């Protein structure tokens, strides 16, 4: 069983005190507010409105239809980053029923909430960049995202082909990934729900996939006034767009040259305490780009998100200064790439490095 060191454990205590003081002083809640509601409505419309317009025949040309699917891909990723992500962390609202409702928007994205919460909240946040635990750095196939994984000859080219594989991210959810993960977690005895049985969860998983295919593929095939192959092309375009956006945002925060990949010692203990571990394995990017930050659900503030996943992303720009100052006081790193393009470049460098060493 892996455990964290108690070294500099007071860093998190002082940091939490300072962040809590910020919210008390300004008399605000750490949850989402009307700004998040506006963003949720915008991203929801960007995702679903083009589908409705196509179904009702507002757009009839091939290029207009493909444009709609592309916008849906942007909306799909936007719903995931701005709404679903906060809700499944319990930070969208102080009312858990509201969090559950918007967390289930994962079904609209083609995913399965129970799987996602365990994979992301428990494994990724609990053991960031730890080999054998964080599934984000252990994709199947020909991507090597950790120096502790086997090196294949083809990995030397992964800085070139990774982007295509990233674009398959969401389509893998609807085809196989959720089923394989569900089976893996079931065999491991993971409790995906406090009250639900595996049988009922599996039934829900199957039904949710059927409904997703009917809504986003079958109905358009029957109603959109273009050849069937253009509808299928558009459907794939939506997924390729969303997958590339989502993977690029998440991978540039952890698979970069400044990130460490800690491994436990012979006693199963990691080098740092949990909070320090997040600083050593995570990197922010484009902190001054307000529009970009708004569009991606504040996920450019990954350091703040990993330290405070229970705080809505709309507050991250305000608490970032507090986190940075406390990290400096305790002699801990606070990694930042100034721009998103710079972060992508650093990620590409890391892919090349991992592919050759």
What is the N-to-C succession of helices and strands? HHHHHHHHHHEHHHEH
- The residue ranges in which pLDDT falls below 50 over 5 or more consecutive positions are none
Distance between the termini: 29 Å
Question: How many distinct folded domains?
Answer: 2
Taken from the alpha-carbon principal axes, the silhouette is: globular
Proportion of residues in helical segments: 55-70%
What is the averaged pLDDT score?
95
Report the portion of residues in β strands.
under 5%
Number of strands: 2
Overall structural class, as computed from helix and strand content, comes to mainly alpha
Q: In angstroms, what is the radius of gyration?
A: 21 Å
Main pleated-sheet profile: 2 strands, parallel
Number of helices: 14
Strand order of the largest sheet: 1-2
Map the helices and strands:
Layout: H1 10-25, H2 34-55, H3 62-88, H4 96-103, H5 113-126, H6 158-166, H7 169-187, H8 198-223, H9 228-251, H10 274-281, E1 283-285, H11 290-295, H12 302-307, H13 316-329, E2 335-337, H14 340-356
Parallel strand pairs: 1-2
Helix pairs in contact: 1-13, 2-3, 3-4, 3-9, 6-9, 6-14, 7-8, 8-9
């Amino acid at each position: 069983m892996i455990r964290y060191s108690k070294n500099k454990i007071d860093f998190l205590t002082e940091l939490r005190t300072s962040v809590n003081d910020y919210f008390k002083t300004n008399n605000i809640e750490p949850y989402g507010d009307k700004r998040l509601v506006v963003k949720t409505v915008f991203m929801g419309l960007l995702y679903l409105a083009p589908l409705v317009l196509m179904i009702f025949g507002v757009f009839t040309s091939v290029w207009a239809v493909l444009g709609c699917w592309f916008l849906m891909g942007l909306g799909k990723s936007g719903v995931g980053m701005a709404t679903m992500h906060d809700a499944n962390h319990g930070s969208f609202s102080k009312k858990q029923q509201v969090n559950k409702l918007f967390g289930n928007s994962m079904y609209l994205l083609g995913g399965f909430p129970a799987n996602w919460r365990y994979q992301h909240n428990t494994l990724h946040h609990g053991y960031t960049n730890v080999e054998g635990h964080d599934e984000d750095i252990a994709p199947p196939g020909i991507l090597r995202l950790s120096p502790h994984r086997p090196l294949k000859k083809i990995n030397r080219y992964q800085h070139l082909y990774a982007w295509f594989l990233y674009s398959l991210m969401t389509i893998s959810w609807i085809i196989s990934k959720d089923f394989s993960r569900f089976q893996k977690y079931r065999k491991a005895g993971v409790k995906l729900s406090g009250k639900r049985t595996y049988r009922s969860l599996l039934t829900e998983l199957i039904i949710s996939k059927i409904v997703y295919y009917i809504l986003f593929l079958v109905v358009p095939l029957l109603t959109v006034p273009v050849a069937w192959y253009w509808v299928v092309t558009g459907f794939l375009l939506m997924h390729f767009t969303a997958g590339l956006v989502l993977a690029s945002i998440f991978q540039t925060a952890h698979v970069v040259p400044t990130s460490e990949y800690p491994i436990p010692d012979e006693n199963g203990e990691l080098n740092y305490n949990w909070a320090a571990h997040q600083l050593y394995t995570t990197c922010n990017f484009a902190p001054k780009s307000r529009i970009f930050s708004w569009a991606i659900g504040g996920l450019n503030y990954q350091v703040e998100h990993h330290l405070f996943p229970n705080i809505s992303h709309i507050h991250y720009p305000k608490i970032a200064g507090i986190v940075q100052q406390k990290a400096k006081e305790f002699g801990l790193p606070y990694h930042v790439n100034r721009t998103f393009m710079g972060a992508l470049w650093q990620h590409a460098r890391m892919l090349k490095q991992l592919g050759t060493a």
